[in-house]
Sequence to fold (1690 residues):
Amino acid sequence: MPIARLQKFKLGGFARLLFCWKASVYKLLWREVLIFLLIYTVISLVYRVVLPNYPNVRENFELVAIYSYDYTAVFPISFVLGFYVTVVFDRWWMQFKAIPWPDRVVNNISAHLNGADERGRLLRRALARYVNLSAILIYRLCSKRVKKRFPTFQHLVEAGVMTSKEKDIIKKLPTDNPKYWVPCTWFVNLVREIRKEGRIESDPAMKTIIDELNNFLNKCDELYGFDWIIVPLVYTQVVTIATYSYFLACTVGRQYLDPSKNYTGHSFDLFFPGFTVLEFVFYVGWLKVAENLMNPFGEDDDDFDMNWIVDRNLEVSFLAVDEMYDTKIPVEPDPHID
Amino acid sequence: MPIARLQKFKLGGFARLLFCWKASVYKLLWREVLIFLLIYTVISLVYRVVLPNYPNVRENFELVAIYSYDYTAVFPISFVLGFYVTVVFDRWWMQFKAIPWPDRVVNNISAHLNGADERGRLLRRALARYVNLSAILIYRLCSKRVKKRFPTFQHLVEAGVMTSKEKDIIKKLPTDNPKYWVPCTWFVNLVREIRKEGRIESDPAMKTIIDELNNFLNKCDELYGFDWIIVPLVYTQVVTIATYSYFLACTVGRQYLDPSKNYTGHSFDLFFPGFTVLEFVFYVGWLKVAENLMNPFGEDDDDFDMNWIVDRNLEVSFLAVDEMYDTKIPVEPDPHID
Amino acid sequence: MPIARLQKFKLGGFARLLFCWKASVYKLLWREVLIFLLIYTVISLVYRVVLPNYPNVRENFELVAIYSYDYTAVFPISFVLGFYVTVVFDRWWMQFKAIPWPDRVVNNISAHLNGADERGRLLRRALARYVNLSAILIYRLCSKRVKKRFPTFQHLVEAGVMTSKEKDIIKKLPTDNPKYWVPCTWFVNLVREIRKEGRIESDPAMKTIIDELNNFLNKCDELYGFDWIIVPLVYTQVVTIATYSYFLACTVGRQYLDPSKNYTGHSFDLFFPGFTVLEFVFYVGWLKVAENLMNPFGEDDDDFDMNWIVDRNLEVSFLAVDEMYDTKIPVEPDPHID
Amino acid sequence: MPIARLQKFKLGGFARLLFCWKASVYKLLWREVLIFLLIYTVISLVYRVVLPNYPNVRENFELVAIYSYDYTAVFPISFVLGFYVTVVFDRWWMQFKAIPWPDRVVNNISAHLNGADERGRLLRRALARYVNLSAILIYRLCSKRVKKRFPTFQHLVEAGVMTSKEKDIIKKLPTDNPKYWVPCTWFVNLVREIRKEGRIESDPAMKTIIDELNNFLNKCDELYGFDWIIVPLVYTQVVTIATYSYFLACTVGRQYLDPSKNYTGHSFDLFFPGFTVLEFVFYVGWLKVAENLMNPFGEDDDDFDMNWIVDRNLEVSFLAVDEMYDTKIPVEPDPHID
Amino acid sequence: MPIARLQKFKLGGFARLLFCWKASVYKLLWREVLIFLLIYTVISLVYRVVLPNYPNVRENFELVAIYSYDYTAVFPISFVLGFYVTVVFDRWWMQFKAIPWPDRVVNNISAHLNGADERGRLLRRALARYVNLSAILIYRLCSKRVKKRFPTFQHLVEAGVMTSKEKDIIKKLPTDNPKYWVPCTWFVNLVREIRKEGRIESDPAMKTIIDELNNFLNKCDELYGFDWIIVPLVYTQVVTIATYSYFLACTVGRQYLDPSKNYTGHSFDLFFPGFTVLEFVFYVGWLKVAENLMNPFGEDDDDFDMNWIVDRNLEVSFLAVDEMYDTKIPVEPDPHID
Fold:
């Protein structure tokens, strides 16, 4: 049960979150920070050890360093990151809200499909299974985890969400497009039959079941849309170029130059670029936020746990339409009465 | 009754709000400000009292101070805070809007479930109780206050929102997932029975009751989603690192250096870092806004008063479906007639 | 009729709006500007008249002034104001959209509640009155103007929107919570009776009337939510502290220092801080925008005219369900035919 | 047919849009630019021709110029414009989406109001006319163009959207509030009659027609809300003051001062303030965006063409409910079959 | 099948996207970069080769270069781009969501239109074809690709989405406005007939089919609105002027001036304006994002593949209402049972 609740503290508050490791900025960034420090150190060593023998080259290097420093001073990556991450964040939450939950459909099945006998039970289970199957088929397209769990239709059959006959029918369907909508069509056909049988007793009930199925399918379509139409590559590239070129410039521009040369802002030498590393963690960490939010259906710590959703939905669906269908709870006076 | 209305004044306006204490920035921040000042003072004392004996160390300290000052000058924490707080603010209001209110469901029960006799009354009360129970079960997951009030199912039984038999049934249910949806399933089953009894007279009425129940359940699901999927840790960490590293740099960089040394911008010594403290209150206060909004189901002054919501909803539900059910108000001509 | 339409001009455009007084930034700010100038002038006079006699104090004052100036130069109040006002602006419009209009409910009453006889007329008027009464009860909670107009239930009776019997019933209701939902419950009960009488002829009609009533009640709930859950105090305080501390720093930091002392940026003396006053109008004006939008149910020039809404809705409701109910407009061929 | 499609080019892209005149920034701004240049030139001439004779005044002028320049350097009008224009942009699109289209209503009339005989035809036309009339009445309030086209009810009668009898009825209606909702009430009354006649055969049909009429009326209400509640004047004034005071400061602060005086940043004289004019076009152009979007129901090139909407909707409505009502299209096998 | 899924990498992440070419910033920008470099180089050569012979002109050029440099230093194009791109991005996604999908309509046809005989099949196919035809007619207005594929109605007939008789009827229709709504009217007329035939058995079914058709038509209207009302030209021009004038100023202002002259910030000569090119890629790339998002119905790599949508929708529609209509899937116990 994937509950990750945020604790609130009187003192420090968010500061305590700095000591988390799972899904943390450190776990995501330590490799990049090491690479950055390595490049910085190599350049630093060359400047301090090799270049003093070539005063001309050294002077040119210093000019390039100053030029790079100026660049990093004016480059507005905080804006572009701010706007970009906001856009990606909105999209991330829209994707979460697009995940279809079968609760409404199964409640309607349970309310309107009468019959506690075996056939009624089978019909309700079949309908509930169809909507879950549709959801799993679309999850397989979006989510690596679900794809790994159900790489082929056969795995779905083994997991009990599809029968062999259904597998054959869906496989033979002459279309190259994604087939996640097919079980919804079966659902519609079966509901029509059930209506004729009379187990769904009224037209408004029929209408409401089909409406909820359509709402469910809409969510699947929406999820498919998010998978298909991504944030335009050029936007992501522009932001990435901005961030990485900034730190490329930093590897040169944030070098401590020989204080004896009296360049402005270079009156001392601290060897370790402490605040530049903090800036790196900050800016590249901000970009990592976007990376993480961009595809929340992956396998990272912070990604949506789609396999849990699959299991929860199957369990709740079958409980609601079958096991709990006939539970008679005696209607008793509650203590508040009178 | 948790009304906190904003007064409007001709003169000063918001300025008057600066003198509030409850839920104020002062109440939230005074500990952090004291810690900041303590660190600042210790460093200041070391610089003024100890370091003069070690001129070399002192000079190095001064260089680090200037380096730190430059860092604080370019670091764009106002942007990242602005974007982050906006995102968290939107989420905060979405969470408020996700809180389920039973008003629609109880109005429908009252409109469509006929019968002023004892059984009719019991049925209406049971249905009203189920939706409130679902809401309380989801509140227990999100809200510390409600969890404290109802730590176990037994407390719910004692509070009269659940009967003992219901407790047994829900406890035995073979699932490890949150069970807030279970009373909604009971609701559906009971409605189906009532329809058969004929107390719900028409199919459209049945449909509309189930639809509203589903809308109610959707809100619960949404609340659960907000509890489950939080703002990615890495975003919060990036913002926190930015803010706290800024003020870490300030403890050194905003020291008043010996004016006799003629460092740029260090031509005088005021001892107390007045404006730096204001900046601290401003930036860390802004971060506190995010902390406060992030989990509005806690026990802070500004958090949603979920226990009041529980009480209000129970009271209004029972009033609407029971006490007021049979109130006959004579239909009289109103004064505006003709 | 509160129409305030924006004129468009070929030349100047918004510039012409600068000459409005009603609801203008001048009307809202002139007091604050005077206070700011007063403080500034007093400090200026002290510096120019008193301090020359105390050269030491004067020099310290000048250092403080420079320190303050530096603070105002780096302080990012434009960001925090920009983000804050945007958040408050969105909320302001959401509040307007949350105001319930009875048009949908009365159209449904008029369409589905048959009978041109006296009883039909009374029933329709009663239902229309109930929804308006609910709206007025919630307005009384939010809006000062409506509260002034109807300080007690008795005033509502005198205004003809409530009968004495209704007043007694609502007063006796054993709840301490706001009672704006009570007339909606009466509405539901009355509709149930009318359905039994047969004046509402069909189940879909019944369902649609209840649905619209619920939508209406939802708006009332939403309005109540806006009244109850305000923007967290700490956010408002942070923004206010930022703005006012900025101008506190300005009263000192924007003083013209003795040009003979050759402080950087202090090479001349203009006496009047012209552009600082413009900055004041701009930043504090921006904060005033937030103040104004925060509680739009007050009595300012720009606030929503809730009393007009009350009158308009009562008038339109009664016209639609009563006076115009039986208007027979002959169906004639229109000129476009053929 | 007001189609303005954006062309996409491989090279240059938006750059080509710079050569448009209609609705362009040049067309909107050339007057303002000329005025700005005029003021600038007058001041420049005074400085260059007159002031050399008064060295004291000249020196003071130079100090004021430097002071003004510093002001323009720190003033953050790009932020306030960015936030303001975003808010106005959102509102602009919401207004477009609030424009009511009768398509849904007329499709429902066409689907559910039976009878190909003359009376059926007249009834359908009357209903379709009523919704269009409501829309035109609300357009008359918002839009200058529609107001000019239909200055009085008589013009509506002449245009065939209202009969003389209807004009008399609506004129006599005892209310001072806008009457755009009146034809919707007629619609409701007429639908009730038609239901009794039996031409609308079912209750769900009746319900759906009234629902769509209500949705249509809601849009009208929304449009009325946008017309009534404008962006608070104080926000617009603050933005306008910021922009215009910036350029007022520019007319003095961006003067080329005598290079021989060696003021910082004044080492040369280019006579024409080229980049200042570009800044003017940019900032005032950005403000013009807001002006243009603020009231999109005017008569500018970019405004919504409400008269086209009036004509299109009338035409489509009558075509759908009348001319095309009885078109029998033979149902034939399509080529894709089998 | 246009799936473009984003890969996630442990190391580097977005950095890997920098090596994509399709839809990349390089592919979009290389022409502009070359032009910029060409202009820069020509000016550079003139300055280095020709101007030394004219010391006066050279000095003036240097002054202009410094003036231009100052301009580029203060010009806030990052803000205006950030705000503008955010606005355009939102609009881009709204356009995607406005694309009508026929899934809901065809599911309703399949559920409620009974009859497995030939006529039932023809009727279902005709209705499914009408909604697809409406969609294609609106796509032809928005999308270049679809317009190219179906330049005339005759092409639609040949593609089998329209019969010749339908073509004649739609051509003769006396209106100059877009006719995409016409097949929706046919749909309504045909549904009315089918209801009379009794193949649509219930009034709620009839209502729900018409409602879904109206929802479908609404999406078409929305798409038409996006095509008709574009982002005001003046906003786009302002942003473009800002960006291009910035780089015009750069071609002069970022020239390396003779270091022997000792201009501030011009103490060295690197010949190639490396970071200026990065800035160019960044800012103009950001503007390209807006260009790309502005009209997503074009033929660029990142544009929506409308032809795939046309094919997918036709295929799914016919499969759902015809081929799969009579598929009987045996209802069997699933493995999870008991």
About this structure: Residues 1-9 of chain D have pLDDT under 50 and may be disordered. Residues 15 and 189 of chain D are 56 Å apart (CA to CA). The first helix of chain D runs from residue 25 to 50. Chain D touches chain E through 85 residues (CB under 8 Å).
